[in-house]
Amino acid sequence: MQILTAGSGITVLFKRIPSKLVSCKYYIRCGSVDEVLPEQEGLCHALEHMLFQGTTQRSWQDQVHDFNKVGAYSNAETDFGHTAYEIHVAQDRFESAFEILSDQVYNATLPNDRWEIEKGTIISEIEDFQDTPAELLNMLAMKDGFGPNYKEPIGNIENIKNAKIENLAYFKDTFYRGRNIFICVAGNLSSKALLKIIGKYDKWQPQRCRVRRPPEFKFDPRVLLVEREHSQQSYITWIKPIKRYTRVREEMSLDIGLYMLYNYLYEDIVWDRGLCYNLRPMYFMDVEGCECIYINAACSNGRLEQIVEDVPKAIDVFLKTQMTSDKIEEAKLAWVRDALDAEESSSIITSWMGHAYLNNRTKDPFDEIFKGAPRIKDHTIRGILTECLIADTKLCVMGSDSAKSPFYNY
Question: pTM of the full predicted structure?
């Protein structure tokens, strides 16, 4: 990975790969952690939508048609700490597609008439999210566990209904500026050719940025029970708050350890006993103060009580008997394999580079895995995973009243 500076002054992260496609992302340090007030939750996501609604040079229809004319795939995402606008396009059409993308990022007009229409699209997206039980429970669990300062990027319906276009423009004016903006590119271009294209169209300016102040959180470990009638399944989330790991070696150790835990839980709970279909431990470090491991599962209503009892027991057995050197080596090899697979995709490369840079890391994230994973000591992985898994646990259950009744006094 190269870190370059274009003629405009913007930072460009570039990885040259043997691909006929070029992937490019504009990253902006603007996400739900910047939504300080309750009524602001979801407005960064709403702003992302509005950057597809016309610029000083193009109507919203022209934006769509111009991307289509050059065969470019265009999309965007809003997360806790960033928003990103991306294109994937054949190499010989990259310059044309980049001009459209740059126009979108810098010249969006945020027309009020389009905002009133786009509200319906965003509300439909939120409703779709809320109709997915596992996603909904995970959001409710995090909000209940970490309190009102935790803001879900997708937002809530009431805020979208009430928001005015000026409320969205505040985030664009405040955060879409200066060093908050950088570019990630992966493709088979020379750095000289890439910088020439970016320098021709990028409109970055060295403006001052507001200092981000992370909100404060206090974890609530009490059980959360959520009603969902007429559901054939119950849904469970366990949350374990953990400390923030800032070193790459520590994060890699946690990744490898959770890969081992996933394999063991799947073998024991899913394959061996058939108690549920899916069971996956993951970690969350996107918001400072909300770092945690969470484990999601879904099972038939009649097996809910057994799952809630057996998963913690399985974790205890794992910690005592399963973190052998052989299994750690297997997990390292699998993790490196997944990174090798990811390095074949230009779109994944831009995402990994972007996330690394957002966390103030300037080394190639793939090289760090390939070189670093084999060097991690077994005792480091065991120590970090044990430290994380012995933390206090918050149990969250979603299901019918009869299914979750055993947990009222849990």
Answer: 0.95
